[in-house]
Structure formats: structure tokens, C-alpha cells
Design goal:
Low-confidence stretches of chain B: 1-37
Number of domains of chain A: 3
Strand content of chain B: 15-25%
Mean pLDDT of chain A: 92
Distance between the termini of chain B: 47 Å
Number of domains of chain B: 3
Strand content of chain A: under 5%
Number of strands of chain B: 10
CATH topology of the largest domain in chain B: Immunoglobulin-like
Mean pLDDT of chain B: 87
CATH superfamily of the largest domain in chain A: Cytochrome c oxidase-like, subunit I domain
Strand order of the largest sheet of chain B: 3-2-1-5-8
Largest interface: A-B, 107 and 99 residues
Largest sheet of chain B: 5 strands, mixed
CATH architecture of the largest domain in chain A: Up-down Bundle
CATH class of the largest domain in chain A: Mainly Alpha
Largest sheet of chain A: none
Low-confidence stretches of chain A: 1-5, 583-595
Radius of gyration of chain B: 26 Å
Shape of chain A: globular
Number of strands of chain A: 0
CATH architecture of the largest domain in chain B: Sandwich
Oligomer: heterodimer
Order of helices and strands of chain A: HHHHHHHHHHHHHHHHHH
Structural class of chain A: mainly alpha
CATH topology of the largest domain in chain A: Cytochrome C Oxidase, Chain A
Distance between the termini of chain A: 40 Å
């Protein structure tokens, strides 16, 4: 390597197009790559959702617009196609939309910038992570074009349905392989994030001075490192069952000799799968935990409480997974244990939630587009949390398990909250990422349509579930007890279509702003974190030269002493104050400014 | 309508029909010696819970409804809090400089969390444990009840086979009564079900009884229920089990005890005649599992 005249830790800036934009090791470029890939697949996953909603509103009729993709069946969704559609909707949204946006894009972009690092700890591993992810995308896309179509066993890929007994085509194998490969990409990224946060924090950037965004992303990375390998193991064993005739997960009359254990797969899947829920939502929690104080112009309420809450949820996340398996014939004592732990997790969740509400109280709340999306996230997450109580409790789960109630609940938490949280981040960091300002009016219109319709859609699903409708039914009205739900499901579908159409407000705004947005100032939101106070928009290749020294937490707003001296309501994390002011500024801030 | 049918001696399965159809069906029923096969499941009314026809489903309904009340209160507080914060403490209000980390603030936050936890979660916990121990997972009570009817169910793509022990009281013998997508049970009697699957995982779901249990290949699971009303009800599959998951539907017919007895006596001889010792696939039953 030819680094000569650079300070230690700094690599030379790339000069060729390929090294600069394609095989880049710059965390900011990789972040954009993940963002674009994630947004494209968000659109794919969304289109699949629209097709599911069409099927539930008008079962077995010709699908408008997307019908041309179903030319073999004359534009109609067949039962076989339907199961592939909902399977791929789930997998694409989770692994190829939310994960790349929230973790790939924001993790890469914000972690080094917010902790005062020049890049990730392992820039080349970072690049490898993205390009491994691209391999998994190729596998996923290929799976749509093979005989018998793509995967069809549900995103949970329960065995034995996901073995050749239930899904004999090569599409399912390709998708299982894609999950394995994308898992490898995730682990590479996660190792990078964990190490970067531990090793590359700027001087003075203590753990208790880190922005909560970084906390959320860091905890997510820890969960990824610990639990994605378990998913990898499950995917590998499943691949062996599918391709090499082993019987890890095949039992009963379907097994030729002896037989394995289908429930073993569920244990492996959910010991990953439940942390995965938090993997997806922790970055969003982190982002809104920062954005709310930023636009309330007030220090984050009980910062340490929020950190402890997120840490406890991270620890508990793997200990509650059994609540996905209450009706699998689980040992009653084990079931009750998992229920107890599940209910306990509501305590840190409440603390986190109360801290958001308390931060808003007596603030100077500015309803900018990131703030609106943050508030929307709080709202849908509140609904999602409350509706989860019924599922963490065994008695009520006996009825609601595997109904649309579950679908509504996890969409409110994982989908709606992660979706609105992602857009909160996109609108907030767009100026820093691309050096241009997004159109605020369009952003607000996007918020109101998205927030209203997404809530209506998932509340409609909750209602259908409460009335008993099972998940994943091609035609729910085959059941007499569900025939009366047709009108409810139709309305839910109309709201879903409106939600889909309203996303064009974002597409237009995004493209317009990329090409012709107003040039962004260095610190348009008037915020004290490192990336806004010390980096131009967009930041230079190495972010910081020299590396800054950090003096205080990220949410120092409206400190009466400092307001007088500085003439503004915020103070930078790395801003050195005149010696007369410093003690006064640091004194009352036991949790924020000094620790 | 009911009077005329009682005269014929079978009220079963005719609740959903108009008087004329009812009479026609009753006649057919006598001819076919299978009174209930013609009756259809009645659709539900409104968007709420399906009608509860079980002896213990009200426990689950109560727990869901009381949690709704708690949740609505919390939800309204959350909305009001956010609305006030946004409108009253808007950008013209000078933010109150507070890190919320004082002893007082922390105590308040912890106290609110504790109250919510002990009231809402505590209520769910206490009632669930009691409901499970006394009812839903109390298999000792069901096993000890002399009236209990035992059923073995085998799920497969995409149907439900049910097996009754027959006169000898033993499963997987030649006098077993085996039905297909059609389960008849007596009213007011505990029905103790053991179930498995031969291919993929299914889930035996009785929406009107508020219970479900997975049917897992290689494993025998159990559940029980008890009807408090006669009639016809949907049996659903709740676990995605392949292309025709949505059609894996069966009918549960709850018969008054004497009707049920008559039906069993009626079909038992047929069952014995239909038994084929060489058809191994048909002998999917197992010795009843008393100990778990």
C-alpha cells in the first residue's frame, strides 16, 4: 500500500471512478450504496405487499398494474404464486430493505462521523460486506426466474415445509442460500461497527457522551454478531436437508429413517429471530432518541436511562424468543418462563418510551420533517407495543397466535416504526450525505400520508386478527366465520394502496433533491453533534483532520448560562468554551454534559 | 321450525337453514343416516370476536377486553401528552433545561413504569397462570373426568383426519371410527385431543373456542376444549402449510350427548367393515399417551 504522507490511520483518497464510487472503502460511499440498494428493494417489497392486499380485497381477480408480471396465469395470483409473494415480501423487507437502510446505510454513515473517526476500523471489510450483500441480492433476484418459482415457505422458513417435502423447487434453495450469504455480509458489517465504536471514538467521546443513534446501532451490531451466526447455522442445516438428503428437521411419516426435529429449526430460527426484531428497531430507537431532543431543543431526558433501557432490551432479547412458540407443544413451565421474561421486557421499553415523552414535555418543539417522522415512530411504536402484550401472554396468545393480530402487531413495531424511523433518518441526514437540502413541504406531505395510512393499514390487520382471521390465507373467505370480514379487508387494502401511492412523494423529492436540491449549509438543523458542527456538507474524504476532542454529550440545548454567552441555544460536542463558562455549562448536566 | 324438527327427532345441523330447507334436510338426514353432514356453519356478525361457544373461552375474552381497557387509557394519555407537548410547548416556548437525571426525575420515570408493569402486565400474568393451570393446560382434570371424549387427529396437506377409539376404547385398532374434515363431539363434555402431522407443521385452530395447537410431525401435542352450545363451527389451519393452506378447513359439529352417542353407534359397524389390515397408511393412530 502506498500511504506515505498521511497521518497514521488515514489512507490516501481514491482517484479512479471505480475506487471512488464502486469498490469504495469510504464508509460514506458504502452508506449510500446500501441506501440505494435498500430503497430499491423497499419498493420491490412494497409492490409485493400491494399484490397481497389486492388478493385479500378481490380474491382471484386480475391484478391491475402488476398483473403483467403474472402473465402465465393471465394476471391472476394463483395460490402457489401467492405463497411466494408473501414469503418474499417478508424476506425482502427484513433482509434487503430495512437491514440495508437502517443498519447498512445509517450504521455506515453515522457511526464514524458521530464518534469522530476518520473511517470504519476495517474499511476493506466494510467494502467486502457490501459486495457480499450484492451477491445475496443476485441470488434473491435469480430465485424468481427458476422453475417452480421462488421461496414459498413463509419468511420464517419453518421446516419441514421449507425442505423438499413442502417446497421442492430450486427457488427455495437459492433463497436459503441468499439468507446465508446476506448473514455473512451482516456479520462483516457488525464486526466493523462493534470494533469501530470500541476503538475509534475521538478523545473525550466517552460511552455516556455518544449520540443515542450510535448506541442503538452499536447494540444492534452486537446482536448481529451474536445471533446472525445462529441463523447461518439453521440455513446451512436446512440447505443440507434440501440438497444432500440429511434429515435434521424432517420427522414423522415424511422422514425415511428415524427422523429429525422440526421444532429444532424453530428454536434456531427464533433465538435469532427475536433479537432480529430488536436488531431492526434499535437503530430506529437510537435515531429518534436523538432527533426528538434535537428538535425539542432540550437535552434528552434521562440519557442514561435510555442507554440502560436499550442495553437491558438487548440482553433480554434472546431470552424471550420462546413466545413465538407457545402453541408448538412447548413444555408448560418453559412457556411460563418465556412469558415472564417477555412481560419483563416491557419495563425497559416503558422507560425508553417515557424518556421520549418527557423530552417533548416543556420543550421548544419544532415540527420539521425529521421531527414529524420521529413523533410518528413513537406513535406507531406505542400502538405496536400495546398490542404485543396480548401475544406475550400465553392465554390470549392461544387465540391470537398466527392470526392477523400478530401481523398487525409486528408490522406496527418492525415495519411501521422501522419505516418511519428510516425516513426520519433519511430526511435528517440527507443534507450531510448529499450536500443538498430536501424539499420540506413534500417531506411533510410524505409524512402525513405515510403516517396516517400506515396506521390505518396495520390497525385494519389488527381488527381482522381479533375477529380470528389466520395469517397467510390466499382466500380468507373460504372460511364461513371470516366471510363478514371482506369489507374490512377491502378498506384496509384501499389504505394500503394509498400508502403505496403516497411514496411517490418521497421518490420525487429524493430524486429532485439529489439533482437540483438547494445546497445545504454545514449545520442546517443547528445541532451540536460532531458531523454537523465540524464537517462540511458533504464531509471530506477523511471526515476529521485533525481528530476532534469531545467535551460534552450530544444534546446540550438551551442551557441558560450558555445561551447568554453564545447567543444560540446549542453548543457543539467538541466546542471549547472560555474557562469562565465551562464549569457553569458542565455543572447541572450530570447525565449529559459531563460524565 | 324447531318444534317440527324435534318431532322428527333431530335438531342437529338444521339451525342454519330456513324452515323449508330444514324439512328437506331432515328427510334427507333420515335417508342417509347422517344427520349433520348437511348443516352449514353460520357466518359471524360484525367485526368483533367470533361467538364464544366454549366452556372456558370467556376467560380469554375477559383478559383481552380488560387489557383493551388498560391499553386505551395508556394510548389516550400518550396521544394527549404528545398533542399538548406539540401545541403548547411549540417553538415559541423556551425549552426547559433539564437532563431528567435528578433523583426526583428518575424516581418518577421508574414509578410510572412500575405502575404500568404491575397493573397491566401483572394482571395478564396472574390471570394467564391461573387460566392455564385451572383450564387450558389442566390435562389432569380432563384425564380424570369419566365423561371425557378422546380424539386423535392427524393433520396432513390439506385435511384433518380424526380418530375415535370405538367400542373397545383403544386407539389404532380395527373398530376405530375415522373421519375426514368432519369432527363430531358431544355437548358439555371435555374433548381431549392429541394431534400430530405426517408431512409439515399445521395448527389446529378453533376460533369459536379460542384455542389452537400446532400439529407437528414426529411429535404428539395435546389440547382440550368443551362446547357449551350445539351447532356447526369452522376448524381452521393457522400455520402456513403450503399452497392450499387456505383450504385446510374442516367442520366441527357439536351434538347433544344422546345424538352423539347415536351417531357413534351408527358409524361404528361401518368403520369395522372398512378396516383394511394391509393399508398401513390408514393406521396412523397411536396408543393414547397418558403421561407427558
Amino acid at each position: 500500500m502506498e500511504h506515505v504522507a498521511h497521518p497514521p490511520g488515514v489512507h490516501p483518497g481514491p482517484t479512479t471512478f471505480i475506487r471512488k464510487f464502486i469498490f469504495s472503502t469510504d464508509h460514506k460511499v458504502i452508506a449510500k450504496q446500501f441506501l440505494f440498494a435498500g430503497l430499491v428493494f423497499l419498493a420491490v417489497g412494497g409492490a409485493l405487499a400491494m399484490m397481497i392486499r389486492w388478493q385479500w380485497a378481490y380474491p382471484g381477480t386480475r391484478v391491475p398494474v402488476f398483473g403483467m408480471l403474472l402473465h402465465r396465469s393471465g394476471g391472476i395470483i394463483t395460490p402457489a404464486t401467492y405463497q411466494s409473494i408473501f414469503t418474499m415480501h417478508g424476506l425482502i423487507m427484513i433482509f434487503f430493505a430495512i437491514t440495508p437502510i437502517l443498519i447498512g446505510a445509517f450504521g455506515n454513515f453515522t457511526i464514524p462521523l458521530m464518534i469522530g473517526a476518520q473511517d470504519m476500523a476495517f474499511p476493506r471489510l466494510n467494502m467486502l460486506s457490501f459486495w457480499t450483500f450484492v451477491v445475496s441480492l443476485i441470488l434473491i433476484v435469480t430465485s424468481f426466474f427458476v422453475q417452480l418459482g421462488t421461496a414459498a415457505a413463509g419468511w420464517t422458513t419453518y421446516a419441514p415445509l421449507s425442505t423438499t417435502i413442502g417446497t421442492p423447487g430450486p427457488g427455495q434453495t437459492l433463497v436459503v442460500a441468499a439468507i446465508f450469504v446476506t448473514g455473512a455480509a451482516t456479520i462483516m458489517g457488525a464486526i466493523n461497527y462493534v470494533t469501530t465504536v470500541i476503538r475509534l471514538r475521538a478523545p473525550g467521546m466517552t460511552y455516556m457522551r455518544m449520540p443515542l443513534t450510535v448506541w442503538g446501532l452499536w447494540l444492534t451490531a452486537i446482536l448481529n454478531v451474536l445471533f446472525v451466526p445462529v441463523l447461518g447455522a439453521a440455513a446451512l442445516l436446512l440447505t443440507l436437508d434440501r440438497a444432500f438428503g440429511t434429515q435434521f428437521f424432517i420427522a414423522g411419516a415424511a422422514a425415511i429413517n428415524g427422523g429429525g426435529d422440526p421444532i429444532l429449526f424453530q428454536h434456531l430460527f427464533w433465538i435469532f429471530g427475536h433479537p432480529e426484531v430488536y436488531i431492526l428497531i434499535l437503530p430506529a430507537w437510537g435515531i429518534i432518541s436523538d432527533v426528538i431532543p434535537f428538535f425539542a431543543r432540550k437535552p434528552a431526558y434521562w440519557y442514561k436511562g435510555s442507554v440502560f433501557a436499550m442495553v437491558s432490551i438487548t440482553i433480554l432479547s434472546a431470552a424471550v424468543y420462546g413466545h413465538h412458540m407457545f402453541v408448538t407443544g412447548m413444555n408448560p413451565l418453559l412457556g411460563k418462563g418465556f412469558m415472564t421474561l417477555t412481560l419483563i421486557i416491557s419495563v425497559p421499553a416503558e422507560i425508553l418510551f417515557l424518556n421520549w415523552l418527557h423530552t417533548l414535555w416543556k420543550g421548544s418543539n419544532r415540527l420539521t420533517s425529521p421531527m414529524l417522522f420521529a413523533l410518528g415512530t413513537v406513535f406507531v411504536f406505542g400502538l405496536g407495543g400495546l398490542t404485543g402484550l396480548y401475544l406475550g401472554t400465553i392465554a390470549t396468545d392461544l387465540y391470537l397466535h398466527d392470526t392477523m393480530w400478530v401481523v398487525g402487531h409486528f408490522h406496527l413495531t418492525m415495519a411501521a416504526a422501522a419505516f418511519l424511523g428510516s425516513f426520519c433518518g433519511i430526511y435528517f441526514w440527507f443534507p450531510k450525505m448529499f450536500g443538498r437540502q430536501m424539499h420540506e413541504g413534500l417531506a411533510k406531505a410524505h409524512f402525513w400520508t405515510s403516517a396516517v395510512f400506515i396506521t390505518l393499514v396495520f390497525c385494519g390487520q389488527l381488527l381482522a386478527g381479533f375477529a380470528g382471521q389466520q395469517r397467510r390465507l390466499y382466500d380468507p373467505y373460504q372460511y364461513t366465520f371470516l366471510t363478514n370480514l371482506l369489507s374490512l379487508n377491502q378498506w384496509t387494502s384501499y389504505f394500503a394502496f394509498a400508502l403505496g401511492v403516497s411514496q411517490f412523494l418521497f421518490v420525487i423529492n429524493f430524486i429532485r433533491s439529489l439533482v437540483a436540491g438547494e445546497k445545504a449549509e454545514q449545520n442546517p438543523w443547528q445541532i451540536g453533534t460532531l458531523e454537523w458542527t465540524l464537517c462540511p456538507s458533504p464531509p471530506a474524504h477523511y471526515n476529521y483532520a485533525p481528530i476532534p476532542t469531545v467535551y460534552r454529550g450530544p444534546h446540550e440545548f438551551n442551557n441558560p448560562e450558555l445561551n447568554k454567552v453564545l447567543g444560540r441555544d446549542w453548543v457543539g460536542q467538541a466546542e471549547e468554551l472560555p474557562p469562565v463558562v465551562a464549569p457553569a455549562g458542565a455543572k447541572p448536566a450530570a447525565g449529559g454534559a459531563k460524565s | 321450525m324447531k318444534g317440527s324438527l324435534k318431532f322428527i327427532g333431530s335438531t342437529v345441523g338444521l339451525r342454519a337453514c330456513g324452515p323449508r330447507q330444514g324439512l328437506k334436510l331432515a328427510v334427507l338426514a333420515i335417508m342417509a343416516h347422517a344427520p349433520s353432514t348437511f348443516a352449514a356453519v353460520k357466518p359471524e356478525v360484525g367485526f368483533g370476536l367470533p361467538r364464544d361457544v366454549s366452556q372456558n373461552g370467556h376467560l380469554i375474552d375477559w383478559l383481552m377486553n380488560i387489557t383493551h381497557v388498560f391499553n386505551i387509557i395508556l394510548f389516550v394519555i400518550m396521544c394527549a401528552w404528545m398533542a399538548i407537548a406539540i401545541f403548547k410547548y411549540n417553538q415559541n416556548h423556551l425549552a426547559h433545561y433539564d437532563h431528567g437525571s435528578s433523583k426526583h426525575s428518575v424516581t418518577v420515570a421508574l414509578a410510572i413504569s412500575a405502575v404500568i408493569f404491575f397493573v397491566v402486565d401483572g394482571n395478564l400474568f396472574v390471570n394467564t397462570i391461573s387460566d392455564l393451570d385451572k383450564e387450558f393446560w389442566n390435562f389432569d382434570k380432563v384425564a380424570a373426568d369419566p365423561r371425557t371424549v378422546r380424539l386423535e387427529i392427524n393433520a396432513h396437506q390439506w385435511a384433518w383426519d380424526a380418530r375415535y377409539a370405538g367400542p373397545d376404547g383403544k386407539f389404532n385398532t380395527e373398530d376405530d371410527v375415522v373421519t375426514w374434515n368432519d369432527i363430531k363431539v358431544p355437548l358439555g363434555t371435555p374433548i381431549y385431543v392429541q394431534l400430530t402431522s405426517t408431512d409439515v407443521i399445521h395448527s389446529f385452530y378453533l376460533p369459536n373456542f379460542r384455542v389452537k395447537m400446532d400439529a407437528v410431525p414426529g411429535q404428539i401435542n395435546r389440547m382440550w376444549f368443551q362446547a357449551k352450545e350445539p351447532g356447526e363451527f369452522d376448524i381452521g389451519c393457522a400455520q402456513h402449510c403450503g399452497t392450499h393452506h387456505y383450504k385446510m378447513k374442516a367442520q366441527l359439529t357439536v351434538l347433544p350427548a344422546d345424538e352423539y352417542k347415536r351417531w357413534l353407534e351408527l358409524v361404528s359397524p361401518t368403520a369395522k367393515r372398512a378396516y383394511d389390515p394391509d393399508d398401513k397408511a390408514a393406521h396412523w393412530g397411536w396408543d393414547w399417551k397418558e403421561v407427558y
